[in-house]
């Protein structure tokens, strides 16, 4: 009883505050004439909603569904400033009451959120079809999509096939470059240890100490990206390796996210694209690019709502620039949605490029609706089914690995990898800047490997990484990678040479020699994962050194073993010994809620 009284009292107090915020901005005449509700009804519905938020509502009300819908339709029609005020208030209260964080963190975080965050939250939570059923004033308009049902449905028709085995008859070279993060303002001799997230530019002045002077070719220890002339050296070296295909998985622009523009971000990708075109004839070497999270402006944020425009500058620019490599049809897909698929007839490869901003936890546009943004997973399933039907090998490329994605997306992607494990012959990702891999296991048998994501190290040095370029040798008969030759630029050695004409990139390792692998199929990578755990001073130490691109003291082998799983919840469950369902989710996934769909019966009633 005491708890209920406190809850009711708090609810009433917050309702009075909300009324004070809104009353100066409402127009009772418009409210009545256009929305058929009175001022009293409007605030009564808001009071009911506030009570619900504090778990102090009663199921019986003097107003019905139409009044509720009219209230929130009117509220959504008010000017942006009013909605921003309401959104900030609701966001703070929701965050505090639901225990997402303490009051100071909630209020500070919500106030700092960009307008896109509040706008997306309002479109989600103030949608009358969503909110009125939630506060028990209307029947349900939406229903949550059950993850396990999706997994069961996806796996129901999985064919019983033995894993393919490379023949070893003939191979071709597939290169992978990622996370270039070129900095056109990099300045040798400038301060490398500044107070900003990115240093090594003239604006930070001369070095405070000799050991904080930005090196000529790049800076290893500090927060600096790669100078453009070092990038060119890397592309020259890539040309000398004579790859048959190249995958390029995004993040071209430097990390100066607080002082960028959309055009600057686009230009970095276009510049690298032009330099690749100077070095590779598209009729001989096909290049497959995709965007990263830093191509977006602001960083991480990409709008997939139905109202977003197909004329987005990123889509237009990349469509035109990549057309020479991926073809007219795929370029048209890029212009529409960024993600695309194309076919390489010579090697029977269906190349599927995913825009992983659809899954990442920094994309605040997903607060409006996290459910399969742009329908990409549904599209992916169709592409994989078509490849299976035609006997094609599928390669999936993207920027953000599934373990760095929101769980609802990652688990569904994991189910697709399981279902089409015979067809998918390679997954190539970046983003982490580290040299690593993650093994996928069957959804109904955690001991059976069904896929591997190969995550390539970055070309940028950010932070404390030697620039890296990767070459896969691929079995031509099966499309399965059989070997990785990993190359690095030793930045310490390069800087000691100064401004020489040509740098030497060293072969860091060969998986057939350093890891004793005959091929890189699912079973081999599963075995390597176990060896890294079981032999920490041998194979484990080699892997850690390669992970960091330089020698590091080996750390907890069980933790490293767990981090080679395909989703963050699986990784955390492996580390802490609890179930997947007991793992927490990130703030954005909490705020956006579960995936949902509109109930068909409701649609028929609305549009009848």
Radius of gyration, CA atoms, in whole angstroms: 27 Å
- Helix count equals 23
Q: Tell me the overall shape.
A: globular
In the predicted model, the low-confidence regions spanning at least 5 consecutive residues are 1-8, 602-608
Secondary-structure-based class equals alpha/beta
> Which range best describes the helical content: under 10%, 10-25%, 25-40%, 40-55%, 55-70% or over 70%?
40-55%
% residues in beta strands? 5-15%
User: Tell me about the biggest sheet?
Assistant: 6 strands, mixed
Distance between the termini: 46 Å
Kindly report the spatial arrangement of strands forming the biggest sheet. Answer: 6-5-2-13-14-15
Number of DSSP-assigned strands: 16
Which descriptors apply to this entry?
single chain, 608 residues, alpha/beta, 6-stranded mixed sheet, 23 helices, 42% helix, 14% strand, globular
Question: Would you mind describing this structure in some detail?
Answer:
The protein is of the alpha/beta class and 608 residues long. The chain is built from 23 helices and 16 strands. The strands form four sheets. Strands 6-5-2-13-14-15 form a six-stranded mixed beta sheet. The chain has a six-stranded mixed beta sheet with strand order 7-8-9-10-12-11. Strands 1-16 form a two-stranded antiparallel ribbon. A hairpin with a 2-residue loop joins strand 11 and strand 12.
